[in-house]
């Protein structure tokens, strides 16, 4: 596993142990029957037109602070991005490196009707229960941090709760692992997690290898409508965009600009 993932997961494991003590899995499970139904993330990524998953991202390991006041504007930004045409929102819930939170996911849930992705580093069923209880409709599973068996197990558990899974690869081997494990929504991340360098060209090569019928998602480093067009031309059906939107004074207007060309 890349160093950055190891560091993130090591911190997360300590916090998860504390969360599990405070709120046992059985308590999370007991809340599920009362929750509103899950929204259809896959259908949102197949709807007509350009489908952007707009990411609420306050900071990142590669860029440091991006939008440090995000916590105070989640509701307004989420509503603005939905009005501007976002197909879904991605909400970072990782605390230590991305300054995200479950509270931000709950805030977004209360503000929009489009599906929400819990964007985090998921390796345990408990995190998937949390995602459902906080109002997520989908979770992210990252091939680089899971064995094939772990991937299958976590994906099946998410499905048992009705949650969709965005399955993320950075390399051809990881892509094979996800496809062998039954991935339907397949994200290719243009960011190399060892160097933090991004390459849409390399991402494009992998996107071309995703079978038709799957939902191919281009993730990271989309800065302009030209980038989005380029990813569309190699076969991406949806686009996950964070920093470009979060650095804009008005993210909704920026999204309109990206969608209009
Ligand atoms: O963004 C990072 O620095 C990062 C570092 C380590 C692991 C994951 C990381 N990013 C997660 C993401 O996948 C992006 O937030 C997402 O694809 C949006 O990317 P961008 O549009 O470039 O903000």
Automatic annotation (TrEMBL):
Database matches in HAMAP family: IGPS_B (MF_00134_B)
Superkingdom of the source species: Bacteria
Keywords per UniProt: Amino-acid biosynthesis, Aromatic amino acid biosynthesis, Decarboxylase, Lyase, Tryptophan biosynthesis
EC numbers on record: 4.1.1.48
GO molecular function, one term: indole-3-glycerol-phosphate synthase activity
Stretches that traverse the bilayer: none
Residues annotated as domain Indole-3-glycerol phosphate synthase: 5-254
Pathway: Amino-acid biosynthesis; L-tryptophan biosynthesis; L-tryptophan from chorismate: step 4/5
Assigned protein family: Belongs to the TrpC family.
Alphabetical list of CDD domains matching this protein: IGPS
Protein name: Indole-3-glycerol phosphate synthase
NCBIfam families reported for this sequence: PRK00278.2-4 (NF001377)
GO biological process annotation, one example: L-tryptophan biosynthetic process
Catalytic activity from the UniProt record: 1-(2-carboxyphenylamino)-1-deoxy-D-ribulose 5-phosphate + H(+) = (1S,2R)-1-C-(indol-3-yl)glycerol 3-phosphate + CO2 + H2O
